[in-house]
Design goal:
seven-stranded mixed beta sheet; cell membrane; 13-stranded parallel beta sheet; about 575 residues; 4 helices; transmembrane helix; Leucine-rich repeat, LRR (right-handed beta-alpha superhelix); about 5% helix; mainly beta
Length: about 575
Amino acid sequence: MAISCGCKGSYNSSKHATLFLVILLFSGRACCDDHPDASKRISCLESERSALLAIKSDLYNSDHWLSSWSGYDCYNWSGVACDNTTSHVIMLDVHYPFDPYVSYPDKSKVNPSLFNLKHLKYLNLSNNNFDSTHMPSMISSLVHLEHLGLSNANFNGLIPQQLGSLSNLRYLDLGCCDNWYSSLWSNDLSWLSHLTSLEYLDMSCVNLSLANSWVHQINYNSLEHLALSNCGLQDATGGAGTNNLSSNQIEGNISVNATGKLKHLELADNPLTKVPLNMGSLFHLEYLDLSWNYITDVILLSMVNLCCLEHLDLQGNHITGEILLSLGNFIHLKYLDLSHNRITGEIPLSMGNLTSLMHLDVSSNEFYGCIPDVLGNLVNLEELDIFSNNISCQIPGIIGRLHNLRYFNASMNYLMGRIPLSLGDLCNLEDLDLSLNNIDGELTNLLDGLSKCPQGSKLQSFVVSHNNFTGSISTGLGQLTQLQYLDASSNSLQGNMTDAHFSQLANLTFLDISYNSLNLILSDDWLPPFHAYKIDMSYCHLGTRFPSWIHTQTTLEELSLSGVGLYGNIPS
């Protein structure tokens, strides 16, 4: 049976909210000035205008984010929309608009006048600080609501079951962000069964440890996104599909409704030991996160029908043995993370079929053998991480075809031989780590290649420490204008380094060239273009006088010049 991947992209709450707003504002309802009588500008009703001002008076507004709420007419107040026939307020979006991690709002209150806006269809109070007060049950009187956002609002106590009377709801967000503390709880979710139109439900971090029948109480008819992470759930057997059950106490098989609309499924941070047997029937699934569980068996056979899968995260499990050749069937994959497992064998050649991949992480496993040439087929790849494996041989020249590569970490392997010339063609590379290998030869061709990028190299971090590199360091290093972090320590580099090697490194903050045989021949009046927090030139040759340019490094936290042959006093 051919399965069509008709819908692209995972379910996105902001996109859903935006789409709802567009529908709301263009279905015959818009701001209050769009009245059938075009000669008249109709403001919102005076009673509702007064209600809005009362609501504003109890919201934290020291940042003046509600500064547009002034004057008689409220048709142009931010976050407010009205029905163009009746002039009733139908949308109120007063979510705190600043990052609460950076600027946490002071206390606010829910003014009772809110419940006079009986015609509201859209209400967003997210990211305000309601000071651990109870969620008002009177919200249930707003029976026309289709969108209700109360996330990260610092409500406390029992979620009112009266929310179940909001039968028109399509979007309900009561959750909190990762690492936020929530003191909301519920021991009975039967009210959710009445929300037959619900498409999006987020109750992340709500304490549901006593809600034993939650699986059977949620209405799945229209549900596309279900987030129940960090809820303390005790059981997930029977019933229909679940989406984002992260950080819960779920064991064994999860019953998943294959007839649903599920596209995005997160089961991260659970004690799952195996994948649900019917996982392969979720034909429309695009996003699957099973990270940080206790999965041990080879699981990909149960997923062979997931032809639409774009994101697969299996990191942090106990997967052992060799991964199956069927991995190459997921031709739509853009993100694949197999890191922090116990996978052995060679990197399978079938990975060469994953030509849509943008992120590939197989770090912290037990892969051995060579980097296969077929990885050169992954021309869309932006991140490649093979850190901490047993991979040997030389880096294949075919890696130079990955012109979109931004991040390449091959540290802590057994790579040997010389760096291929083609690596110098990776002009989009921002982070390169080849440390803790047995690579030899010179760095000249790599540095010269990167320095000649037509629009300049984007390299920010260059780590080649603990290898067997020899020869001198090319002055091409000084042309890497974006470089911030340079570690070439513990090699056999030699030759001179002059002002030219640092000429355009204005962004450099970390410099470690220690444990080499380099001679630093710098002008007496040389002023570094950078301000570093760490400089380590141990066992290089600086001459006998303490370098005068050090006094310019006003941000320096760590300086190591041991074994450089200095004499005399350290200048004050």
